Amino acid sequence: MKFLVQISLAVAVTFAAGAALSSELGDVDNGKVVFKKCKSCHAVGEGAKNKVGPQLNGIFGRAAGSLDDAKYSKSMTRAGDDGLIWTQEILDAFIENPKALVSKTRMSFRGIKDADDRADLLAFLRIYSDNPADIPEAEPTAIGTDHDLDPAILAIQGDPEYGEYLGSECITCHQTNGTNDGIPGITGWPTEDFVVAMHAYKQKLRPHPVMQMMAGRLSDEEIAALAAYFKDLE
Amino acid sequence: MKLNRRIFMGTGIAAAATLAAPMVHADGHAKPRVVVVGGGAGGATAARYIAKDSKGAIDVVLIEPSRMYYTCFFSNLYLGGIKTIDDLGHSYGTIAAEGVNVVHDWAVGVDRDAKTVALAGGGSVPYDKLILSPGIDFVEGAVAGWDLSSQNAMPHAYKGGSQTELLKAQLAAMPQGGTFAMVAPPNPYRCPPGPYERVSMVAHFLKANNPTAKIIVADPKPKFSKMALFQEGWADHYEGMIDWIGEDFGGGDVVVDPNAMTLSIDGEVTKVDVCNVIPAMKAGRIAELAGVTDGNWAPVNAADMSSKADADIYVLGDSSQQGDMPKSGFSANSQAKVCANAVRGALTGSKVFPAKFSNTCWSLIDTDNGVKVGATYEATDEKISKVDGFISATGESAELRKATYEESEGWYAGITADMFG
């Protein structure tokens, strides 16, 4: 029964998305080469064990921070509790800029900026995730909308005075002393990280409902203003 | 002439006498003065933000009778044994150190022509702008058989502090297998999920200490905030303990007898051991005395929280009638920031930014089992209007519920730091 549902879903998605998908799924051989950047911390394939980072078999569709024996940051565990699932789209966003998606992740890796390399890497990793390997077009490997931020958005100079006023709404929960208990600290972030993170909530790539709602009504200028204000706190 | 904070920190009477001296802005005094009545989530926040952001350009006087403020939010967690009363108490020391003149006295009248606030201790305080954030009072005669003189026998525990402690003591002293009754309030009232979180926390306490006890809730409403979430939680965690009697079954037809300790619901009389009566509410009395109420609440303009009756008076939080926001500490804190920005602009010409409001209410059902509801709002000509919202879902994972509870603890630390420094 489940098999049938998946097939019909796959067919539906294929019809909807057309031929463009196959090229976007990436080149597995090059993905294996790109994976060398990950190998010192992550294992994948038969018998893969957790190393510094969790093993990546079955990563597609797995909840963030959910392997029992792996070590995760508090941020990663919280993201998983909030409902972050590693889909193609989310993995792509994470690999591009890990800290933009999960602020205090233990993964100290600056990210892969080349979109083709990321697509190839994910095509390689997908081999070790059961269902997506069988049905390439089905969730969670379906390719989502492009999450790249327009450079013009990143270039906006925020008004810190407006940011202070808008930020008064943030500090009802996020304390100005940067405390990280229960609710993460947001002070002293590089402007770009802050802007990318807020847009990730606005686009609902990051999972938290309160933050999706709060970011959802902020304009690009307002997000820049907040980033400009919180950058200099602490 | 400069105001001396230490004098204001003294006893109410001494402070009042000093304030009555002619150190008035209105005619030629160097600085404009804002008087804030009520040191809760609305008033303390407004006082702090105006003092902080004006950098000394505005005199800020906060009139609040209590020396320690006990938050009403999280007081249910104290009833459940999860927090202590000390966890809920906050002093005004930091606010005073930051330059707010804190006067511990009752405001008992407002002369809108002379622009002064009269104090119970004598004397009066002149203002250029007056912010009223007095919380709630109860509608007289709302629950048959109950008035304020019955609040020891049948506590409301709907203002933080001694009433909460009294209810907790009565809960702990209940005989095994006894009955805890609650008379829930009609809309609108402070903290919509509050009575039902309280039921959950009372059940949590009883389950551990008095497992054969029963809880009866008489409710004049057909439904309530987060109803599906609470009912799911009650069935899963406190099966058979809680009997909620809504409007359909006569929950609004209630008579209490504080001497006999009985509760009559739809004519059926029950002997109870504890009776928590939460009557219908209205704006804190000073709003009525100032003449800015219309019916039970004080209508305000959404853009800046100014009273519709007087452009120099602002009303925040529970007392205000503003539109779609629930009456909550979070709402009051949010409104205070919009108001502080507008008041500062009006008095010093500083930049006034557009109003934005938000609210989130977390409730605890059982240990590590938190749920939340929230929304964002904007100011329209007519009212504060809801933009977008969310609510926790039934059937959520234990991990998410725990994360939600931890988030609520983070919020409590955040908002109290925002209010009290």
Describe this structure in words.
The complex is a heterodimer of chains A (234) and B (421). Helix content of chain A is 48%, strand content 0%. Chain A has 234 residues and is mainly α. In chain A, helix 11 (191-202) crosses helix 12 and helix 11 (191-202) crosses helix 13. Chain B contains 12 helices and 24 strands. Chain B has helices at residues 5-9, 12-20, 43-54, 75-79, 85-88, 93-97, 162-172, 194-209, 227-237, 285-289, 329-348, 398-420, and strands at 33-37, 59-63, 68-70, 89-91, 101-103, 107-111, 116-119, 124-126, 129-132, 136-138, 179-183, 214-218, 242-245, 254-257, 262-265, 268-271, 274-277, 281-283, 298-299, 313-315, 320-321, 356-366, 369-379, 384-391. In chain B, helix 3 runs parallel beside helix 11 and helix 8 packs parallel to helix 9. Mean pLDDT of chain B is 93; it is low at 1-24.
Indicate the topology.
The complex is a heterodimer of chains A (234) and B (421).
Chain A: H1 2-17, H2 20-24, H3 28-34, H4 74-81, H5 88-96, H6 98-101, H7 115-126, H8 130-134, H9 151-154, H10 160-170, H11 191-202, H12 209-216, H13 220-231
Chain B: H1 5-9, H2 12-20, E1 33-37, H3 43-54, E2 59-63, E3 68-70, H4 75-79, H5 85-88, E4 89-91, H6 93-97, E5 101-103, E6 107-111, E7 116-119, E8 124-126, E9 129-132, E10 136-138, H7 162-172, E11 179-183, H8 194-209, E12 214-218, H9 227-237, E13 242-245, E14 254-257, E15 262-265, E16 268-271, E17 274-277, E18 281-283, H10 285-289, E19 298-299, E20 313-315, E21 320-321, H11 329-348, E22 356-366, E23 369-379, E24 384-391, H12 398-420
Helix pairs in contact in B: 3-11, 8-9
